[in-house]
Amino acid sequence: MTQHEAIDLKRYIRNIPDFPKPGILFYDISTLMREPDAWQITMGRLARQIAPWEPDMLAAVESRGFLTAAPLADRLGCGMLMLRKPGKLPGATISHTYDLEYGSDTLQIQADAIKPGQRVVVMDDLLATGGTLAASVTLLQKAGANVVGASVLVELTGLGGRAKVDAPVKTLLSYDE
Q1: Who's near 154: CB < 8 A, 6+ residues apart?
Q2: Cα gap 107→117, rounded to integer Å
Q3: How many domains does the chain contain in total?
Q4: Does residue 2 carry a pLDDT above 60?
Q5: What's the average model confidence in pLDDT over 101-106?
Q6: Which domain holds residue 164?
Q7: CATH of the domain at 72
Q8: Domain annotation covers residue 101
Q9: Cis before residue 151, ω within 30 degrees of 0?
Q10: Residues 6+ apart with CB under 8 A from 104
Q11: What's the DSSP call for residue 97?
Q12: Torsion angles phi and psi, residue 88, rounded to 5
């Protein structure tokens, strides 16, 4: 085991109770990103997880998915596209509206962002109940992507979100919540 393999990245993630609302335990990755060595190790581990999928494109979920997808696209030599809320992308878009625990939300991509059959990996910071990640996969498939996987920094395994995602999921850090 190398020194980098021995580093526990969980110690760099701050837990904030009752954010953004009472009863929620927020996993704050900003404390991980502030530590250059820990962030480099994080990017290296994510790159090793994703590389076997041989993606043509990383699809970043707004907004914290941008934080991992941009440096990983550079490392892996692939493209990156953004999945955003309505009204944030110029030009023609493709939309997908999905249900949340309390209401609904919509994600969009630019209509010309994907060539049919491109190998795409979806990137986000956290997998909890799985609604957003599942919607991202559906939207990308609607646009013609071959979604080969999804990657997140943190998974709350007790919430069962992985089961909703129609793609293999790789997680860097898991918590039983």
Answers
A1: 13, 27, 29, 125, 126, 127, 171, 172, 173, 174, 175
A2: 20
A3: 1
A4: no
A5: 86
A6: 54-175
A7: 3.40.50.2020
A8: yes
A9: no
A10: 97, 98
A11: E
A12: -100, -15
pLDDT digits 0-9 by tens, 48-95: 999 999 999 999 999 999 999 999 999 999 999 999 999 999 999 999
pTM value > 0.90: yes
Q: What is the phi/psi pair of residue 55, to 5°?
A: -70, 145
Q: Please give the Cα distance from 32 to 29 (Å, whole number).
A: 5
DSSP assigned state of 160 = -
What pLDDT is recorded for position 41?
A: 97
Catalytic residues: 64, 101
Q: What radius of gyration, in Å, describes the C-alpha atoms of the chain?
A: 16
Whether 90 and 175 have beta carbons less than 8 Å apart is answered as no
Residue 171 sits at φ, ψ, to 5 deg, of -125, 140
Structure tokens at 97: 């509206």
DSSP assignment letter at 88: S
Q: For residues 35-45, give the mean pLDDT.
A: 96
Q: Check residue 4 and give its pLDDT.
A: 57
